[in-house]
Amino acid sequence: MHILEAQQLTKIYGHHLSLKKALTNVSLSVEQGEFLGIMGPSGAGKSTLLNLLSTIDTPTSGRVMMDGRDITHLKGHALAEFRRRQLGFIFQDFNLLDALKVRENIVLPLAVNRLPVDQLQGALTHVASVLGLSELLDYYPSELSVGQRQRVASARTLIVKPQLLFADEPTGSLDSQSATEFLQYLQTINGQEKMTIIMVTHDAFTASFCKRILFIKDGQIFSEIIRQGDRQEF
Ligand code: ADP
Ligand code: ADP
């Protein structure tokens, strides 16, 4: 069952005198439970593709379907609701609130929805254990390493159980050991929580944690690797 489908996506930035074709007729399907990597050099169109798949931006032509529903041109309240209920985002920057403890940062999206305290606590305990944060809940973000802060940001995203998780260069500010650890947590989230993940990176090591990798260059998909068995470097 395809959770996400892109049909003939083309994106042209700018107007008349300065047109930039960032993406040309890109089509792809993502299955429920996949851990998909989108890899390519700087300027290839990775962020553009991720932005189109995740309703952050709209294509010049083509469409994006989620669970068979056309989500290409959702607007206003419908768009905000759709994103809030279905999508999660992890970026290179964490945007944690320094005045709040780790536990408060993580439950923030649920607290906004005024969930009962016992449900909040249950969700927090679960996500903290999945991301290896159980011992860190009473610290402040400034007391943590960057790797730990990235996991806190991820926990805050995951606590609402999005259908689809989008990650744009999530290890961009991590050293290689924290990056490896973080990517292993993403694999756990993918395997154990059956979370569908789409991750953009220019880095082969980071991409090697994905189950399937699409390579893009000059705004087009030019090859695909499907990984069998354990992670391998290439
Ligand atoms: P990547 O994420 O692979 O580095 P991007 O999707 O950011 O690539 O960019 C693809 C191409 O489109 C690049 O040439 C980039 O300079 C251009 N581009 C991206 N965003 C814009 C924009 N808002 N306006 C004009 N050109 C853009
Ligand atoms: P990334 O590292 O994720 O590829 P970039 O540094 O390429 O991000 O781009 C950062 C932001 O600037 C993006 O939102 C992108 O759309 C925009 N951008 C990239 N290239 C251009 C450009 N030539 N003109 C205007 N905006 C651009």
Automatic annotation (TrEMBL):
<protein>
    <submittedName>
        <fullName>ABC transporter ATP-binding protein</fullName>
    </submittedName>
</protein>
<dbReference type="InterPro" id="IPR017911">
    <property type="entry name" value="MacB-like_ATP-bd"/>
</dbReference>
<dbReference type="InterPro" id="IPR003439">
    <property type="entry name" value="ABC_transporter-like_ATP-bd"/>
</dbReference>
<keyword id="KW-0547">Nucleotide-binding</keyword>
<keyword id="KW-0813">Transport</keyword>
<dbReference type="InterPro" id="IPR027417">
    <property type="entry name" value="P-loop_NTPase"/>
</dbReference>
<keyword id="KW-0067">ATP-binding</keyword>
<dbReference type="Pfam" id="PF00005">
    <property type="entry name" value="ABC_tran"/>
</dbReference>
<dbReference type="InterPro" id="IPR015854">
    <property type="entry name" value="ABC_transpr_LolD-like"/>
</dbReference>
<dbReference type="InterPro" id="IPR003593">
    <property type="entry name" value="AAA+_ATPase"/>
</dbReference>
<feature type="domain" description="ABC transporter">
    <location>
        <begin position="4"/>
        <end position="234"/>
    </location>
</feature>
<dbReference type="GO" id="GO:0005524">
    <property type="term" value="F:ATP binding"/>
</dbReference>
